[in-house]
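Troubleshooting log. The previous structure file for this entry was overwritten by mistake, so regenerating from the original sequence record. Sequence copied from the archived sheet and checked twice against the printout by T.R.
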Amino acid sequence: MTTVIETKEELEMYNLLRLKSALKLEVAGMKHSKGSVYALVKRRFGFKGSKESVLQQLINHINTKYLVDFVQ
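Regenerated output below.
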């Protein structure tokens, strides 16, 4: 199955979901080869707290921004 990203909003949501997935792996103990996703998300969005807290803040941001409640 192929998904086509056609709009700027779809691309932005894809990137947010990609960050969420990478941060979720980092919370589980894996490391990203390009550096800390945790630090990137904190810097980009101004979130504060532990990795778990920042992950939850990112999920809340995605759900609020796109008026969805399916991102876990």
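Helices lie at 8-27, 37-45, 51-65. Archived copy saved in two places this time.
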